[in-house]
Amino acid sequence: MKSKFKRKLSFADAINEAQVQAMKLDKNVFILGQGVEKGAMVFNTNKNIEKKFGSKRIFDTPNSEQAETSFAAGAANAGLRPILIHQRVDFMVFSFEQIVNWISLWSFKSSGKCKMPLVIRAIIGRGWGQGPQHSKTLHTFFSYLPGIKVVMPSSPSEAKGQLLSSIMSNDPVIFLEYRALYNSSEHVPKEPYFLDLSSPRHRLKGKDLTVVSMGASTLTVLKAAKELSKINIKVDLFDLRELSNFKMKNIFSSVKKTKKILVVEDGWKNFGIGSEIISKISESGIKLAKPARRINWPNSHVPMSSVLENKFYFDHNKVIKSCLELCKKK
Amino acid sequence: MKKKEKIKLYESLFYIREVQEQLIKKYRQGNKMRCPMHFCIGQEMLPAVLRQLIDKKDSLFCGHRSHGYYLSKNGPLNQLFAEFYGKKTGVSGGMSGSQEMMLEKINFYSGALLSGSFAMSIGDAFSKKYNGKKNLSVAIIGDGGMDEGISYEVINMAVMMKLPVLFICENNLYSTQTHMRERNKNLNIYKKLLPYGIKTSFINSNNPEKCFLKIKNIIKDIKSSNRPVFLEVMTYRFNAHVGPESDDHYNYRSNKEINSWKKKDPLNFYKNKLIKEIKDFENINMLIKKKIKNKINNAFKYAEQSKFPNSFEKFNYQNTYSKKVKNFYNNQIPFDEKQEEHKPKASSPY
Ligand SMILES: Cc1ncc(C[n+]2csc(CCOP(=O)(O)OP(=O)(O)O)c2C)c(N)n1
User: Fold this and answer.
1) Residues of A in contact with B117 (CB under 8 A)
2) Do A187 and B336 touch (CB under 8 A)?
3) Could you tell me the pTM of the whole model?
4) CATH number for the A201-327 domain, one of 3.40.190.10, 3.40.50.920, 3.40.50.410, 3.40.630.10?
């Protein structure tokens, strides 16, 4: 197919389409959360859903994250497929008790007899002057927990497939949407489709170094890789989908070839996904030519002031620099 | 109430009491039940009444003091004891013990952390409304659980969304060893709820029949109005907060208080009432006792003879999908490699 015939969707529209298709596919799917059908419709991801499905299937709640989460959990246990939305992951922290002590262990404590087919969508990451209470990612908080799937898409087509798979999953899924991605766009197939969440997507093929990233950081790496390819440095890029569980097989074979690993992750450095990947590589016994590297946020809360904000976040130049250093012949 | 109903109510009271007493007796023998247990001696009235009034399809959510409620949903005794023994045949396959049992086929759910199970009842009730079912959800909580903020969030949401939930608070005056008056200005919880716009009801009586009639009406009301009701019931726990031994040597409650409640023991009260009312009650009672003791002995045998589970990790995830998912792409999407980035707008809503 020629690219001009391919339909493009924004990240927000892809999420919207996934929800609409899931709601058509299964009448048990419904959406709840604070202001989900009002105003900006959660970055436009919920536009026209009330018009299409009515207020029975998408509705506003009081500002009670704990009760909302228990509500969703009770409904999921009874066979419905709720999508609970938090406009920022920071608000979701109110419901840690429900996630940690109930939802994550629901299947476990029933010895596998009870299901919790619930999706919690939360917006994460960099905004504009958002300061320390509206910009966290917290993805590793949840990934640490058994019984929960944590999913973080990096592009519109990934977002659609991953959200459809999350909604239809019989396990609870925390679906993290990096805010900077909403306006990015690419080709997204029209029909509903599902992705194997535990298989990282082999996003770029290259022989020089292995890079692993997730969410918005994948977009940053793609930008860097484009520049690097101009000077003939080819990146082997893996884009994680499910952060709580991912197959390492292809990453291992890649690192065996390139002997270099860089993990790029929007979020704090300590105890991050990067730490996990690099320890897995270390445990596998693969010999590296250069010490493993990570690019993360500093271990600090996010400052508001735009000058500091720019200092806080990394960009594609930092990725290029790290790649060059890794590829330098001694 | 009909004679048959009265006898059944008495039988339920006795059943729940006797199960507790036998568990307490056996608990330390051979150290085979290795999980904390919160017994409910003295508090049998509510579960006994509910046993008669709720439907199998009504869901019940309760906390750590759950044995009575498990029996009120007619949960099998064999599976209950097997769970306490940590056996594969247990209610939760040996994963939860006494504090966190759940059995979906009888719509019974519980958990130890205060108010979490209570809170899930609203989503359960919503599912009934969503699917046009006439059943209700029953949510049980203690006075201690009503100290948690989420309890009020949940009641507010049930009111606003008109959900068929029967919220019941068993006020036994203590949270572990801390009295209500050390924790709250208002000793009655239902009074705090009046401004929430929920219908409330209050029972301060050891007469199971009064409780039965009141709850019967409340259930009728919930089913016809599709609105939640909050009921507070005064009660008292005779046993320790947790475990088979008494905890009264900590002196957190006075002998005078304990004795005054024991004098009002609902089981004794009701037995004496029925002896006066029903001619051949002594005989009926003998048969009931024999039947229940047999059932309990058999359950212990079943638990002893069952096997221990040998796996646990696989229960963390279902790793299955809705039956609606047919064509699984497994990564074979015709993705475009080109993703365009646009500058985010400065003035976004959040
Ligand atoms: C969130 C939480 N905090 C503390 C506890 C410890 N705890 C267990 S039972 C209990 C007392 C609860 O009192 P109440 O709700 O009145 O129930 P009762 O034990 O009297 O039946 C406490 C504080 C807990 N289980 N969960």
Assistant:
1) 102
2) yes
3) 0.96
4) 3.40.50.920
